Amino acid sequence: MIRTKKKMKNKWVSAGCVCAALIGICSLLTGCSVDTVPVSDTQISYDGEAASDTSDNNSDNSSADSTLLSEDVCIVPQKSNTATDAAITADAALLIDDSRHKVLYAQNVYGTEYPASVSKIATALMAIKYANPDDTVTISNNASHITEYGARLCGFQEGDKISMKDLLYCMLIYSGNDASVAIAEHISGSEAEFASKMNKELVALGVSGTHFVNSHGLHDDNHYTTAYDLYLIFHELLKYDDFREIIQCTKYTATWENAQGKKQSLEIVSSDPYLTGSKQPPKGLTAIGGKSGATVKAGGCLIMYFQDKKKRDYISIILKADSSYGAYTQMNHLLEYVKRGK
Q1: Rounded to 5°, angle at Cα 130 from 207 and 211
Q2: CA gap 14, 145 in Å, rounded
Q3: pTM
Q4: At the topology level of CATH, where does 113-217+244-269 sit?
């Protein structure tokens, strides 16, 4: 049984996995420091409401400087200008030393982007908070009939019965969109209700530039987020040892029963090149895990969690790279700023 440092989320068990290894108070001006590259001159709303469905997410908010947000998060200063790094061609990039609450690189972190399957980290947060790992989930017709071209599916059939724990592994490691829908429906009855509940949950974390309409990130023009919002979600998830364990997983066998009671299984092998060893982060850093995603409109998207030799935590984000490969290449370049921030 896994136990967390904060006596919180100890209900998720990782049997079958081979692993590779707010609301408190924080001032906008003291929540974090910028050592290397300051953030672009953009604004974010801290009024406690979700951002409106318009493109004007960067409007001035005179109360922002005095609004207090969340405990123990890094809040990116708004009125600094980012240096241009020609090697980072993605629309948005963010690197935070999360142990010392320092921004090491920030580029267009409040700009609206499509997150593709990186959206699934928000679904994971909802699952860990509002479901039990031993819950039995019955796959619906809706979850088993996703027809969008290119959608990654576990292959569940209507009437299959599977544990919530196995669904989480299927969603985060295999990126199964059918697993995401099954989780959403189990928690809220429908994807629409789930998305509404999830958006409200995210606002409580300080998220203000995000609006999700589904649980998986398959493209919808009204499904969007920002690099900074993804940081807030991921930062919250890292409080759960169970989540850390799942994202480190390199191999897992999910099992379930079909409608006739016959056992089914799916062997999941991580495709994360950092975990498989086909890509190495800069010297001194160890990749713990993360989530990738890609669609035609979202481009290559990637959020990762690294630690250095002193066990300091780093959260790094690339949104809308030219490809999935490009997201990992640019991530490595982004991580070079860790050295400059020391």
Answers
A1: 30
A2: 28
A3: 0.83
A4: Beta-lactamase (3.40.710)
